[in-house]
Structure formats: structure tokens, C-alpha cells
Design goal:
By secondary structure, the protein is α/β, with parallel strands linked by helices. It has one domain: Spore Coat Polysaccharide Biosynthesis Protein SpsA, Chain A. The chain contains seven helices and 13 strands. The strands form four sheets. The protein has a seven-stranded mixed β-sheet with strand order 7-6-3-8-12-9-13, sandwiched between helices. It has a two-stranded antiparallel sheet with strand order 1-2. The chain starts with 17 loop residues before the first strand and ends with a helix. Belongs to the IspD/TarI cytidylyltransferase family. IspD subfamily.
């Protein structure tokens, strides 16, 4: 079987924005200076399904569509860049366009997560000053969580949605024997969205590419440079769908009040 040609990026133009001073102002008077990169380039192999987990239905709609519509409901968002696997980027599923197509752009995912984020960042228009990165595998993101990370990013530092660790943590060796109990006092479980001043996040990714390093999230790339990142309160609704059983859990969580 011959390999399919590389999928070109599908660019859908952002809304018409006029410049007023140093800020980009939407016609309704709301500052639209936030760009969102939704990382949906993974294969989702751990769910045990041939269908991509970001395309599977959860809580009444495809998982990816939840995130796209949540961010597009915000008047401060100028554009949402969805990073899809190469095979899907040229011909996205039609339900993806059940949203504001004037603020939608589809980009091609890389081999690793950080490469996908870079592709998304490169597609953000010039008026974007706050960059938000979100995992499509977390479909139930709340607007309150988005508010908190963006508010902190506007102060000039990165922000990560997270929850404090409440379980007792055990470090174990290769044979499963407990080595020690880990102090959980200052430990948090990182989630997405994560928000940053755009220039800060770009700096972190440029340095990572130069040094040949990666990280499991964007905050980690900023941390290695000593750039300030804070945690804000996330939500249990921000759970990540990893295994097949997580779909049922997400369905249940969607019925709870935010």
C-alpha cells in the first residue's frame, strides 16, 4: 500500500478585526486577543477502539466538539486551532464545523505532542497575545476554569489548571515493593487548559526545539527555563479520557453541575 500524501493545512480565515491602539478589537467591542490550540493529534490506542478517542461521542456529542464549542462560546477568543492527525487534517469530520467556522483553523499534528503545539502556535494570527493550549481528551472543560487560566496569563505568567493531590502517594521499586510514602502537601495534578503570554510560550518551545527536549505539558517547557508558572483551581470535570472506561465516567460527570 502506498503512503498517502502529506495533508496540507486547511486555513479558515479569522474574523474581521480592526486595530484600535495596541489592541485588537472585535466589532462588538470585546477584545479578541486569545488564541486556542486544541491538541487532537493522538491515536488514542489505549482506549482499545479503532476510532480516534477525540472523535468518539461522550455526553451527547463528539469529544473534540465539546472543547471547540466551549472555547468558541467566549467573546475574547479570536481563533481556535484544532491540530489533527495528518490523515484527518485535509478532510476533517463534518461535525467539526458545527461551530463558528470564521474562528476555526485546522492544522496538522506532529509526531510528538510538543510538535503539534508548535504547529498550532505558528497558525495563530498576529493579534493573539494570550495562547491557550488544551487537550481534546479533556472534553468537559468548564468556562470558569478557562477564565482562571486566562486571567493569570494576562498578568504576565503561565497558568495551569490543576487539582491538589488527595490520595496517599507511594513510591515503589521495580518489584512493586513500597520504598517510601511521598509527601503530598505541595503536590497538584496538572490538567489543561494551560494559558501563557504568547511570547513566553513561543520562547519555551523555541528553546526546547534547540535543546532537543520535550515535556508532557507546555508548563514543563516553561519551567525548565525558569519562567513563572502558577496553578489555578481546575475541576474534576477536567478529567482526561485515556481508557475506554473513562467515557462512561465522563458521561456521568457531565450530568453534575459545574
Amino acid at each position: 500500500m502506498s503512503e498517502s500524501p502529506a495533508a496540507p493545512r486547511r486555513v479558515i480565515p479569522p474574523p474581521v478585526i480592526t486595530s484600535r491602539g495596541d489592541e485588537a478589537i472585535a466589532h462588538d467591542g470585546v477584545v479578541r486577543d486569545v488564541g486556542v490550540v486544541i491538541v487532537a493529534g493522538g491515536s488514542g490506542s489505549r482506549t482499545g477502539s479503532a476510532e480516534l478517542k477525540q472523535f468518539r461521542w461522550v455526553a451527547g456529542k463528539p469529544a473534540l466538539l465539546h472543547s471547540v464549542q466551549s472555547f468558541m462560546a467566549r467573546p475574547d477568543v479570536a481563533i481556535v486551532v484544532v491540530v489533527l492527525p495528518k490523515a484527518y487534517a485535509a478532510d476533517p469530520p463534518p461535525w467539526l464545523f458545527q461551530c463558528d467556522v470564521d474562528r476555526l483553523l485546522v492544522s496538522v499534528g506532529g509526531r510528538e505532542r510538543h510538535e503539534s503545539v508548535v504547529n498550532g502556535l505558528e497558525d495563530l494570527p498576529e493579534e493573539v497575545v494570550i495562547a491557550v493550549v488544551h487537550d481534546a481528551a479533556r472534553p468537559l472543560v468548564t468556562d470558569a476554569t478557562i477564565d482562571r487560566v486566562i486571567a493569570e496569563a494576562r498578568k504576565g505568567h503561565g497558568a495551569v489548571a490543576a487539582l491538589p493531590v488527595v490520595d496517599t502517594l507511594k513510591e515503589v521499586d521495580a518489584d512493586g515493593r513500597i520504598v517510601r510514602t511521598v509527601d503530598r502537601t505541595n503536590l497538584w495534578r496538572a490538567q489543561t487548559p494551560q494559558a501563557f503570554p504568547r511570547t513566553m510560550l513561543e520562547q519555551a518551545h523555541i528553546a526546547a526545539r534547540r535543546d532537543g527536549v520535550g515535556a508532557t505539558d507546555d508548563a514543563g517547557l516553561c519551567e525548565r527555563l525558569g519562567l513563572p508558572v502558577v496553578v489555578v483551581r481546575g475541576s474534576e470535570r477536567g478529567m482526561k479520557i485515556t481508557e475506554d472506561v473513562d467515557f462512561a465516567r465522563a458521561d456521568a460527570l457531565s450530568l453534575l453541575p459545574e
